[in-house]
Hints:
This protein has strands at 7-8, 14-15, 20-23, 26-30, 34-35, 49-51. The chain is mainly beta.
Amino acid sequence: MTRPAPAAWTAGVSYRPGDRVAHRGVSYVCRQGHIAQSDWQPQVTPNLWSPA
């Protein structure tokens, strides 16, 4: 079974640990629950996101 592609990371969305997103061609998994802000993009917030 193929896993569906992750949704695009979007500011203003509430993310929970384990959620997967794609941003700038990279997949990430959420480490800590939060509401995304425009300056909290996954590539600059390793406390919130890990590359998947």
